[in-house]
Amino acid sequence: MKQKIKLAVHEAYTAMYETLEDEQIYAVVLVTDGDCGSLYLTMGTEKSLLQIGESYEDNPENYRFLKDEFLHEDDTDLLQKVSRELLDRALNAGEQFAAHKVEIHEAMSDTMYELKQEGVFDDSIFAFISVTDDADEERLEITSAKRCNPNHPSLPTFLHNWQQ
Fold first, then answer.
1. What whole-number distance in Å separates Cα of residue 61 and Cα of residue 160?
2. What are the pLDDT digits (tens) for 13-48?
3. Can you give the C-alpha Rg of the chain in angstroms?
4. What pLDDT shows up at residue 164?
5. What average pLDDT is seen over the chain?
6. In angstroms, how far is CA 148 from the centroid of its own chain?
7. 3-state class of 134 per DSSP?
8. DSSP string, 98-132
9. Quick one: which of 42, 126, 139, 157 could link to 27 by a disulfide (CB 3.0–4.6 Å)?
């Protein structure tokens, strides 16, 4: 499953990157839901961050790492196919559901780390994983952000956002 996820994320990132060539990407996040039955990739760009700040009449920096506010998401076939497979696995996991979640979270974290190490994501891009509607969101985001971006200048700000 990990290789399928990695290939799908790589494809989604490449497709999104090509459409955003005139924008400065500052963050990329791989997101699942609480059941680990879907995946999507989202990106934050400096241009969209300014648009968000204007629409809320607020300081755009307050929204820098809020994945739910990012304006760019993937719509690639391969990531959609992986999501369908994940949903089938989640629905049929039964007593193995906890193991399913652990496996998917690890695969997501490994994927983002490896794509960063391989140079697919530029060093300037802050990468992490997240989960919606799950109490594990904070731990997953912090752990993956530290792993993927140990020397990134935005890491202290990202961590500080969770301490507020």
1. 13
2. 999 999 887 889 999 999 999 888 889 999 999 999
3. 15
4. 62
5. 90
6. 11
7. coil
8. HHHHHHHHHHHHHHHHHHHHTTSS-TTSEEEEEES
9. 126
What type of residue sits at position 96? Q
Q: Where are the domains of the chain?
A: 2-163
For 54-78, what is each residue's pLDDT tens digit?
999 999 888 888 888 788 888 778 8
Tokens (6 digits) for 110: 């490994």
Task: For residue 20, give every residue at least 6 positions away whose Cβ sits within 8 Å of its Cβ, in sequence order, or none.
Answer: 43, 45, 72
User: CA 46, CA 107: separation in Å to the nearest integer?
Assistant: 28
Residue 37 DSSP class: -
Contact 30, 112 (CB under 8 A): yes
Strands (E) located in the chain: 25-32, 39-45, 72-73, 126-131
Q: Are 31 and 131 in contact (CB under 8 A)?
A: yes
% of the chain at pLDDT higher than 90: 57
Q: What is the mean pLDDT of residues 141-155?
A: 96
Tokens of 104: 């998917």
Answer for the pair 36, 141: CB distance below 8 angstroms, yes or no.
no
Strand partners, 27: 44, 126
